[in-house]
Design a protein that fits this description.
mainly alpha, 73% helix, Arc Repressor Mutant, subunit A, 228 residues, homotetramer, DNA-binding, 0% strand, 2 domains
DNA sequence: GATGAATGAGGGTTCATTCAT
DNA sequence: TATGAATGAACCCTCATTCAT
């Protein structure tokens, strides 16, 4: 019985934390760490400032925890051993698709990360080493392709930079994208078209040809919504 | 003689304004409008908060004027009629070079703009229409290439998005770029290498071949006016 | 038991609000909206400026709420249907007495109102329509007297102006009244004498005769609510 | 020649001082001493804040000088020996007319004085003794009328209070007067009507009858405009 | 858990005044 | 004279956080 009680309490706390995280993410991803007030987060979460401080340690800690979650997302999305066994074009196409899908589903997380890096990356430097492994793994896979003559000589880190830049753009610059595509705020971005354009551009940029069906539909299935 | 006095005073004021602009740019580009305090700007400019308000109207006005200058830079950099007469690959290579050159010279201005757009672009929306013309002109040039069979069918706005995304990246994500290139903060980015990689990637992404000498040195020509 | 706690808290908050209102009234009635600082109000209330803002929304809102209360007082004091059934001299005598009584009890409220009107009445214009009804009712009662031949032809609004001017004077000009009556600041005004003089002057000014006992004691009846 | 130069300079200074006085009067009479900023005065006078401080000693000194001028006006308007030789009703009618005329011509001066008294009369207390003589003279004249049986027993100081209150009202409460008389801000008050009503009310209030022609036209002649 | 209360620091901005030129 | 520059103080208000209940 006591266990049940504890469980209920834990669940409630978890629910509250997720509400708070969503509110914080919304604010941090729009105004950055310094530009966000705890009052704004509390308001968005529908609680009082004092209640907020009951659940979080501090504004900085909340921000850091969100960043930490973000890093985990990146790790899941990045090139992995499984991709290494595919043809380069297909592997990259999949990577781009995963990344874009995530960007469309969680633009705020993408923006949060960009904000942090643009602010100097002070907070993330502490965490960055963790994902370093991911990047290192990715560069090794790409280097393997070069070694095996599957793709032209290419600097892996630049390829990763470019993939990153092109995919982040549709979250970070969403207002501008909407502006130039004459898309009102209440209509969703055209995922398939963007995905096709970006993928084609990257594959070609690598000097490869598009794999068959590479520009096919992104599964519009029930993607997970970790935080939003 | 009186004219000389006036001139000296005007120059001094202009100098102070440029010091303030530089300080403001530094802060705004790192923390955004809301995350930047006038105190921080004043400190960086080496003056008191009250003195700052002697020179500027308000924080918002200062921010807006910086953004307005930024827009003028973009207009100068964008595709123009002259480019339209070149071969597509060369025209794009030049555009990319211009943009990257500016990014390397003024990473803060690039970041300021990204921060603004990411924050929702509330302030810039008032100004954005001005550059719209520039973008429209650019899309027409690109569309002209398609019409004349010089390049494959391509959606101009996406090409512009991609150029923008790839070039901004080296300002916006500079800390991360440095991290993964193991480059300490006091060493400059390798302009030529980055320029070559980015240009090649874009030209290829368009389905073209690199023009001769396209990856050559970036002309260190008259760029001028860093902040004013 | 929980109810008791809530009640205690509510009472404490109400007490604090009344302390703040009193402090604000004192300052606003002496220096107006613009001339009063929140620091001065906080000092008088014995709290810090931040604490003050915990209890009030803003200086302007506090000022407006005080003015709004003032208007309610005026509505209670004004000529009403009950007065309309009395003889004119008696009705007016009563009105004057009520108004003077209030003036003596709450000179600051009277001054607050005068200050506001003298400042241009920007804030009160929003509220003024509410009491307009009261004035309209009063003018109709007076006009009724004229119609029924109970008093000479008279312009009701002027009579109301004059009653207002004469009664307000003993609040607004209290320092001068004291000066010319050689009355030190710690001694109360001679209510009865003033009341008698003012009433007699007004009744006569209307062309009437004083009702019997009109100059008698001012009833010390239930006036209550000084500031809240 | 040197004399001429000095004279010209003195005249210019005098002109500037009168511009400043007018601007200061406008502001002080609307917002009081504390509620008025030197910036607002300078703006109204069409000069810079530094220039203002070149001409005035301090904000307080400027305020005090305006009050001092005001007191001189009161002295000129008050009951004088000449009035003492007239019939009471006529003397009072003239006094009221003088006072109202001044009020209509210089409502700001009237308000300035009211503001000062309402603020506690700290500044004026230093000056008040000067006009005291005037009031004393007036009370003696009125007392003389009582002694000689020309008017009923009356407390002179109250009569003066009432005259003051009724006449000031049309400056101090001008916004309210306009409101209830449905008079737009750009139309002048109906001087004659107000003058007639006020005079009749006061004369009657004293227990007298109106002198012939007492309600006649106020001379709209060239009244002096000391400061406005 | 949740809320009322409190606080030291800081937010952007204006204040009256002075000084040098 | 008039203006550019400067300053210490104060303006109204919000900040992140803590504490008691």
């Amino acid at each position: 019985m006591a266990d049940q009680r504890i469980e209920v309490l834990a669940r409630r706390r978890a629910e509250m934390m997720s509400v708070i995280s969503a509110a914080a993410l919304e604010q941090f991803s729009q105004h950055g760490l310094r530009g966000t007030s705890t009052q704004a987060i509390a308001d968005r979460a529908g609680i009082s400032k004092q209640q907020l401080h009951y659940y979080i340690e501090s504004k900085d800690a909340l921000y850091e925890s969100l960043l930490r979650q973000t890093m985990q997302h990146w790790r899941q999305i990045g090139l992995n051993a499984e991709d290494g066994e595919l043809e380069p074009a297909q592997a990259i196409a999949r990577l781009v698709r995963r990344k874009l899908e995530f960007t469309f589903d969680h633009p705020q997380i993408s923006r949060l990360f960009s904000y942090e890096v643009m602010s100097g990356g002070v907070v993330i430097r502490k965490i960055l080493a963790e994902v370093n492994g991911g990047v290192t793994a990715a560069t090794q896979i790409i280097r393997g392709w070069v070694t095996h003559g599957k793709i032209e000589a290419i600097e892996p880190i630049f390829l990763l930079f470019h993939i990153w830049a092109l995919t982040q753009h549709y979250a970070d610059y969403e207002p501008q994208v909407r502006f130039f595509m004459a898309l009102p705020a209440d209509m969703p971005l055209d995922r398939e078209r963007i995905s096709a354009e970006v993928t084609r551009f990257i594959i070609r940029g690598m000097g490869l040809r598009l794999p068959e069906h590479a520009t096919g539909l992104i599964s519009a299935g029930p993607t997970s919504h970790p935080t939003s």
